[in-house]
């Protein structure tokens, strides 16, 4: 989750940078959208930076931060579903080609990877109990 958090942070910074680079006179857009699209790209970049903070925090203590991993898995699957629906609609497929299907595949693989790495409830309880017993002994 920490590596994913760092990747989200870098991607978020890149999205915010693309917004500011688009605002320069006679600039060539890095993302094929207009001004409104770049506004939403920057907004998404801010959200990714916030999400990165949660993932990095959860990576520091993964056994007691199960909800961050669960929410991340849910959001990745939801993002993949939105991309698949956009591809099925057809309007976006003409504009993006197979990009939305490729993104959906990557997001689902990433979600599956996080599911495999997620600590079990028993591991989380054992970690919480050991933290309580260590705190009580001090």
**What is the assembly state of the chains in this entry?**
single chain
What order do the SSEs take from the amino end to the carboxyl end, as H and E?
HHHHHH
Q: Major beta sheet, specifics? A: none
The rounded distance between the terminal residues' Cα atoms is 30 Å
Structural class estimated from helices and strands: mainly alpha
CA-based gyration radius: 19 Å
Percent of residues in helical segments? Answer: over 70%
Q: Overall pLDDT, averaged?
A: 82
Low-confidence stretches: none
Strand residue percentage:
under 5%
Number of domains: 2
Shape: elongated
Note the total helix count.
6
* Strand segment tally: 0
Summarize the structure in words.
It is a single chain. Helices cover 82% and strands 0% of the residues. Helix 1 (2-22) runs antiparallel to helix 2 (35-60) and helix 3 packs antiparallel against helix 5 (99-117). The mean pLDDT is 82. The chain is elongated. By secondary structure, it is an all-alpha fold. The protein has 2 domains: 1-61; 65-118.
Keywords:
single chain; 138 residues; mainly alpha; 2 domains; 6 helices
What's a quick, concise take on this entry?
Helix content is 82%, strand content 0%.
Secondary structure blueprint with pairings:
Elements: H1 2-22, H2 35-60, H3 66-89, H4 91-96, H5 99-117, H6 121-137
Helix pairs in contact: 1-2, 3-5
